[in-house]
Amino acid sequence: MITELFAAFVMVLTFGILFQAPKKSLWLLGLTGTISWAGFLLSKHLIGNVVIASFIASILVGICGEIFARIMRLPVTVFVIAGIIPLVPGIPAYDTMLFLIKGQYLEGVKTGIDTLMIAGAIALAIAIVGAIPPRIKS
């Protein structure tokens, strides 16, 4: 698990460097990715559902993004976009296309629905967290 968390940190840090995030925010970007992946792994272990685990991890990304954005005086999107990178369902999306190309339509549709549910959970969680701070006075 420590190796996965370190890999998440490096992956998000590299993403931040590649997309020219402000240098002062890079270590917090990595921390956001690490927290999101830790939340995903813990939720998946406790609940056993990838969609719910993605939702919980995305809530953590949104909260970290709001907090770190206020600390660093940067837009929230800097942290949220980088923080969700470990959660993006790339392998299920690839599997969906592979099943459809091979003509295994039932398996492709099942995997596609799972992929859309994960992506929807991520989007919903970020939207929920993003809607709350304007109502809270700083």
UniProtKB/TrEMBL annotation:
Source organism phylogeny: Bacteria, Bacillati, Bacillota, Clostridia, Halanaerobiales
Membrane topology: Multi-pass membrane protein
Domain of life: Bacteria
GO BP annotations, alphabetical order: succinate transport
UniProt keywords, alphabetically: Cell inner membrane, Cell membrane, Membrane, Transmembrane, Transmembrane helix
InterPro entries linked: ThrE_2, ThrE_Dicarb/AminoAcid_Exp
This protein's name: Threonine/Serine exporter ThrE domain-containing protein
Stretches that traverse the bilayer: 46-69, 76-101, 113-132
Residue stretches making up the Threonine/Serine exporter ThrE domain: 5-131
Keyword Cell inner membrane: yes
Primary subcellular site in the record, as a coarse category: membrane
Pfam families: ThrE_2
Family: Belongs to the ThrE exporter (TC 2.A.79) family.
Subcellular compartments: Cell membrane
A Gene Ontology cellular-component term: plasma membrane
